[in-house]
Structure to design on (516 residues):
């Protein structure tokens, strides 16, 4: 039987500057979900990439004294370097300057024209170069774009338009029926409210006399609007050649992740393009909030920005991944400061998981000759595994499945750490050192086996979130299934083997040497 397919995308980030903490947040979340689905034996395709065209990039490159292609090549390397540092395992990285992407986009636009979905007209209005979007007066605050605090440019030029309003009712129906699911629910309500109160205006899908972009195939004096070009990456990134009847088997995406600032264009323009092309819509758009710092939006002016590299330097790769994913409810704004992150690192990682593993391995080495002890009871009856009065590790598995299926990443992490606290409490209640002193070998072995068994399960459970740490624990306990090239959760059912020699490695999460 063919494996179930799972296709997830990050937004295609705009290549106007090096990656920031918001990019890292979304991409780590996508990596967590991709790893989780791979562990379930699914055939995963995780797409990342960069939107490299547009007037904004052209102007930034010119200001830096560089040609646009050279500029985006440098930015592309910055993104790839950061994803490598953060242990992001994407399956595809699409760049909109790639020749195969350009050809497919031109084919798609020609088809839209042939189907009379686009037409030539005259546009007069406002254009925000920062957003690469057309604006209305109602979008502005004191005459300025609220996202860029700059007045939009007034444009009057010939362009080609995409018909939007004729598919508005169809789009509303699909959203209401969750055939095109927008989550969390508050964002679905927001988009439906917008669509039901406003008639969609036909949008300009070309710019005249803009050199940095893909030429419109039906009129070479026009360049394809950057958002239309960018949206089609979700198809070209999995090998689409621009033929509507030859769609790659990974399509449609199971989940498309994005920040709330780009939801509206993804929930309106993107599906309308697909409907005009006769291509099925993504199954789910999932929208998350902003990363705030001290309750305020990060900005260089306020001096409250946090660079991903700064976090990696202070907390390590897995520390950074953990702190991002546990910062708050995925789908809401989350607040992140280096001070708060440092406290959480010490409490949850150094004193929490790291300390539990170190204590358990040290006691195993001291009291059991460094080997997983033999027991005379059924491991299924160990309280850390099945006691319904505590948060046992079987309960964690149930929580993981439910929470990750619903993108409740913070809650999934919380369940794992609740078990870690239970394991710590178990040590304090049973005091293995006293059992050893009193010569109660069977009770001692039972206690340590249960703790090692629990840590074995934690190694599997944390793998999507902090894979490097997961594999260090796997090496310590010789968890062969987790050390495979393509680990599968089914192997987590195999019990740890008594007599297996453990390996004490380096400290998982060193305590922070100085105040942040």
């Amino acid at each position: 039987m063919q494996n179930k397919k799972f296709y997830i995308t990050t937004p295609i980030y705009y290549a106007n500057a090096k990656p920031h903490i918001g990019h890292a947040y979304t991409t780590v979340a996508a990596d967590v979900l991709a790893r989780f689905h791979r562990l379930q034996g699914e055939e995963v395709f995780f797409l990342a990439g960069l939107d490299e065209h547009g007037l904004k990039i052209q102007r930034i490159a010119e200001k830096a004294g560089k040609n646009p292609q050279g500029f985006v090549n440098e930015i592309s390397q910055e993104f790839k370097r950061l994803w490598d540092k953060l242990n992001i395992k994407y399956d595809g990285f699409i760049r909109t300057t790639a020749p195969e992407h350009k050809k497919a986009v031109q084919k798609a636009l020609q088809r839209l024209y042939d189907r009379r979905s686009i037409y030539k007209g005259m546009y007069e209005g406002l254009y925000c170069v920062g957003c690469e979007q057309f604006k209305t007066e109602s979008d502005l605050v004191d005459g300025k774009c609220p996202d860029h605090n700059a007045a939009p440019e007034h444009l009057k030029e010939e362009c080609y338009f995409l018909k939007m309003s004729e598919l508005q009712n169809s789009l509303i129906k699909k959203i209401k029926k969750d055939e095109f699911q927008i989550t969390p629910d508050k964002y679905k309500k927001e988009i439906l409210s917008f669509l039901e109160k406003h008639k969609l205006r036909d949008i300009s899908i070309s710019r005249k006399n803009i050199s940095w972009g893909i030429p419109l195939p039906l009129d070479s004096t026009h360049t394809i609007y950057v958002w239309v070009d960018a949206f089609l990456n979700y198809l070209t990134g999995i090998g689409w050649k621009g033929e509507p009847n030859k769609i790659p088997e990974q399509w449609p995406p199971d989940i498309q992740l994005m920040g709330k600032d780009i939801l509206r264009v993804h929930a309106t323009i993107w599906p309308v393009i697909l409907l005009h092309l006769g291509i099925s819509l993504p199954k789910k758009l999932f929208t998350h909030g902003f990363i705030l710092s001290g309750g305020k939006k990060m900005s260089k002016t306020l001096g409250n920005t946090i660079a991903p590299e700064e976090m990696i330097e202070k907390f390590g790769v897995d520390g950074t991944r953990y702190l991002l994913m546990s910062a708050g409810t995925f789908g809401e704004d989350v607040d992140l400061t280096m001070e708060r992150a440092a406290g959480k690192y010490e409490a949850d990682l150094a004193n929490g998981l790291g300390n539990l593993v170190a204590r358990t391995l040290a006691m195993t080495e001291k009291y059991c000759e460094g080997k997983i002890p033999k027991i005379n009871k059924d491991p299924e009856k160990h309280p850390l595994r099945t006691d319904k009065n505590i948060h046992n590790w079987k309960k964690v598995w149930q929580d993981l499945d439910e929470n990750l299926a619903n993108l409740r990443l913070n809650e999934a992490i919380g369940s794992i750490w609740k078990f870690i606290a239970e394991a710590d409490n178990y040590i304090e209640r049973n005091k293995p050192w006293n059992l050893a002193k009193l010569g109660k070998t069977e009770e001692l072995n039972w206690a340590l086996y249960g703790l090692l068994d629990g840590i074995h399960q934690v190694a599997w459970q944390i793998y999507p979130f902090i894979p490097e740490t997961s594999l260090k624990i796997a090496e310590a306990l010789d968890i062969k299934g987790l050390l495979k090239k393509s680990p599968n959760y089914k192997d987590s059912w195999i019990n740890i083997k008594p007599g297996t020699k453990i390996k004490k490695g380096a400290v998982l999460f060193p305590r922070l040497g100085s105040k942040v």
About this structure: The first helix runs from residue 21 to 39. The first strand starts at residue 5 and ends at 9. DSSP finds 18 helices and 17 strands in the chain. The chain has a mean pLDDT of 94.
